[in-house]
Amino acid sequence: MSTPSSVADVGEHALIALIRERVPPAPAWLAVGPGDDAAVLEPERNRLEVVTTDALVEGVHFDRAFTPPGAIGHRALAASLSDLAAMGASPRSALLSFVLPPALALADFTAMVDGFLALARGHGVALIGGNITRSPGPIVVDVTAMGTVRRRRMLVRSGAEPGDEVWVSGAIGAAAAGLDALAAGLAEGGDMAGCGAAFLDPQPRVKLGVLLGRNRAASACVDLSDGLADGVHQLAAASGAGIEIDGGALPVPPPAAAWFASRGRDALTAAITGGDDYELLFTVRPKLRSRFRTVRRQVGGLALTKIGTVRREAGAVLLRGGMAEPVPSGYIHFR
Amino acid sequence: MSTPSSVADVGEHALIALIRERVPPAPAWLAVGPGDDAAVLEPERNRLEVVTTDALVEGVHFDRAFTPPGAIGHRALAASLSDLAAMGASPRSALLSFVLPPALALADFTAMVDGFLALARGHGVALIGGNITRSPGPIVVDVTAMGTVRRRRMLVRSGAEPGDEVWVSGAIGAAAAGLDALAAGLAEGGDMAGCGAAFLDPQPRVKLGVLLGRNRAASACVDLSDGLADGVHQLAAASGAGIEIDGGALPVPPPAAAWFASRGRDALTAAITGGDDYELLFTVRPKLRSRFRTVRRQVGGLALTKIGTVRREAGAVLLRGGMAEPVPSGYIHFR
């Protein structure tokens, strides 16, 4: 008899057991963990609960030809942690829901779980429950993440006012260029390795989000999982204001810009309309700049770049070479 | 120009707008509702948080040939509310995550949402967030539901002791027979209409679960979404005890029993191994029977049936015609 090799060979209960033996001991606030009908948590005193859900679908968000299973698990959690970070929340727990083709290799399943759990461990996130279902279709990984935040430290999209500065963390367009290079088989080593890693191994800006909230240093915040262009539009619309972006200030890594140019694309447009940048876009009120300086000291080596200004007139404008053009509408999921 | 007819024709933002215009005004405890990066909730004082997630996959849990879209939305929420009920929790909020083929008719999408929201309204559940993703594969509806419960009113699977009575709500096997009859095109009107409705329109036992918890009337509880056989095994194993079921006492509706028999199947085995019974299986300590009488008075017309006893010896046994046989292992998702 050969050893089990697909998820169908071992069945649902054994898959759940494989997850549970990988999960570290439950935190004290978890009154009932995996194994009952539902998980039961003790709320944190004087905190609001923050909750978000996100799904990764094979063939839409990742291609198994060049996305290792560990990266799938990592990215599924990163998307939700990035949403919590944009609210200033400290992540605490997550639910992991798999929809799996029966022929999926068991080793790929455990690697997805391990990728998820490694990122969870790094942020002190407890896996408290989930679900496993077979499917005749592609892999779907659906993650619900929960965190907590004090009411006065919460960040929302709607607080920007004319005159506020617009800032962004990290790099823009690296993940989109990396995805492109991975698909072309050109992201191993060399110039594009960093961009490939930006797609496969994104680091949600949990610490930055928490610090911006704790220091009350940002007037508004949004995450850039659908790209900078989309984030700019969302933040502007929610705040009832407009945003002017300085194209020359955008932190597009040179290898990403060169990659887009070599493919005949306008580098700036490609960088801001590509998705998968798990960065934070946030606004800083000039008179509260000292609070922001505190955040910059505390956040460590993470690059933070001023890229524009909030203005009264609605809409989003990109300045380049002295000319103003509308910011494109960003990544559209369904077209 | 023709009117939009598929979800791809209108795009993700319009689908989200369609959901939001259907959602009733937000409750006061919802600090940030749909539209930001995450939802923000005020916890209920002196309550634990209870959270569960469940997915319905087209071709596995439902077949669109005989499952109307409204029933898909209803069933997706019912599964999670049944899990909360098994913990004695009052449901409060839910996240709704869709994975959709682009060709899905827009009218089917809105009907799924309406089916979800109708059941949510009936139980005072607020839709606080979610996600929509396109997919090359089948429809997946993933629901995370959250509720609250006082610590001492929480129900778990592990509290049964030898001598406790085993009870079940409602009917067993009706949904499985109904699914079979629906697939055969024989559930419209006539004897099997009730079974068809048990599959398409299951009523999670929220009130019963809350009353069992509030009156501290049950020593253990589990929901039967994977069928009675699975529930009996789960409750027995979690409690470190065994369970003896009286086959003659099981509330299998006569049309369901007749349906299984007409298909050449053993009716009792088919009824307890079929899934989709969103009923509660719970244990009652004989000396606390007066608390249970209070629950029976308060729960109204719902049938509650004593079907067995907890015993010291591990395992689950089915008695019929004076003979004991092992309870089969229940519905296996992956084989």
Structural class of chain A: alpha+beta
User: What average pLDDT do the residues of chain A reach?
Assistant: 94
- Order of strands, main sheet of chain A, comes to 8-10-7-11-9-12-13
Number of strands of chain A: 13
Could you tell me the radius of gyration of chain A in angstroms? 21 Å
Globally, the shape of chain A reads globular
What is the chain-wise order of helices and strands of chain A? Answer: HEEEHEHEEEHHHEHEHHEHEEE
If classified by CATH, what would the architecture of the largest domain in chain A be? Alpha-Beta Complex
Mind telling me the CATH class of the largest domain in chain A?
Alpha Beta
Please tally the helical runs of chain A, counting DSSP H or I stretches of 4 or more residues.
Answer: 10
CATH homologous superfamily of the largest domain in chain A? Answer: PurM-like C-terminal domain
Proportion of strand residues of chain A: 15-25%
Number of domains of chain A: 2
The name of the CATH topology of the largest domain in chain A is Phosphoribosyl-aminoimidazole Synthetase, Chain A, domain 2
Largest interface: A-B, 70 and 70 residues
Helix content of chain A: 25-40%
Summarize the structure.
Two copies of one chain form a homodimer. Chain A has 335 residues and is an alpha+beta fold.
What does this structure look like?
2 copies of one chain form a homodimer. With 335 residues, chain A is of the alpha+beta class. Chain A has 2 domains: 7-152, 60s Ribosomal Protein L30, Chain: A (2-Layer Sandwich); 155-326, Phosphoribosyl-aminoimidazole Synthetase, Chain A, domain 2 (Alpha-Beta Complex), CATH 3.90.650. Helix content of chain A is 34%, strand content 25%. The first copy, chain A, has 10 helices and 13 strands. In chain A, the strands form 3 sheets. Chain A has a 7-stranded mixed beta sheet, sandwiched between helices. A 4-stranded mixed beta sheet of chain A has the order 3-6-4-5. In chain A, strand 12 (315-320) and strand 13 form a beta hairpin. The model of chain A has no long low-confidence stretch (mean pLDDT 94).
